[in-house]
Amino acid sequence: MEQFVFIIALLAIGIFLQKADAPIDFAKSLNFFVIYVSLPATVLLQVPKIHFDASALGVVLIPWLLLPIVIALVIVMTRNYPPHVRAALLLVMPLGNTSFVGIPIVHTLLGEDAIGYVLMYDQFGTFLILSLYGAAVIARYETGVFHKRLIVKKLLLFPPFIFLIFALVFGPMPTGAQPYLQTLAATLVPLALVSVGYSMKFGGEVEYGLFAQSLFLKLIIMPLLAFGILIAMGTEPLALKTAVLESGMPSMITAGALAIAAGFAPALSAALVGYGLVISLVTLPILTYLLGKLSL
Questions:
Q1: 38, 69, 117, 203: which has the fewest C-beta neighbours closer than 10 Å?
Q2: What digits encode the pLDDT tens for the residues 182-213?
């Protein structure tokens, strides 16, 4: 319980800092350190602990299996809305905040042993989907141009992805290096959550019906679909719980920022990111409780 209160406190610090005389690009600076230092250190510590079996494969596959289902549901939901609204939901609905929010929340709810699965879901699922599918959505609805070479370059040079491949190939880091990696990895949770809180936006005129449907799909339907798929695959309990919680994470701030920058329903995109995060602090513990009641 104390850890969950700590998560809320860190988010609140970020929100309060919005009113402070913060340096220019404050959130970007925090994100830069997290992406280039904190997250790679976490990857090097946690990924070698994963036992690669059908359960790990299920964690990786879930975001890709959910993607076409969510796309189809969004198309149905937005059949009577302008294209820019559909574009916004196509960006923010499939993509969850599976690292900056996912890592601290899953660590709190399931423990450190689940972090390896979180990283697999995030890097081989969310990150690749953002890089490939997200770019395709923007190209389709805004620019009309799909820069394949630029996308591949960005993918291959993304630091956490590079270190993920390194950890998979070389395994555990030397014992002498691990205390230093743990110190660096410990910075991930406070920096990431303060950055998320600082970046949260509320307000704006949104269409309540579509907003409510979208939140229900993101926070309830997607994890339930993930649960059904993983049960059918016979996934072991910790991997199943992790993937279900990751599937129920609120919309990714980066996806929301891309939608806003492209002019895709800015108020709706901001509301889904901001309010979705707040509501997920209730839905994710409930999901964890229900999974526990099922003796998983």
A1: 203
A2: 999 888 878 878 887 887 776 666 788 999 99
Could you give phi then psi for residue 136, rounded to 5 degrees?
Answer: -65, -40
Domain residues for 201?
Answer: 2-14+26-293
Specify if 20 maps to a domain: no
Count of residues making up the chain: 296
Judge whether 124 lies within some domain. Answer: yes
> Total structural domains in the chain?
1
Reference 69, options 97, 98, 93, 87; nearest CA is 93
- Report which DSSP code applies to 177: G
pTM above 0.90, yes or no: no
- Token duo for residue 163: 């270190």
> Within a 10 A sphere around the Cβ of 87, how many other Cβ atoms?
23
Banded model confidence at residue 254, pLDDT cuts 50, 70, 90: confident
Quickly tell me which residue has 């059904």 as its tokens: 228
CA 249, CA 223: separation in Å to the nearest integer?
9
Interhelix angle 26-33/188-199, nearest 10 degrees: 150
Write the pLDDT tens digit of every residue in 107-116. Answer: 989 998 899 8
In a domain, 19, yes or no: no
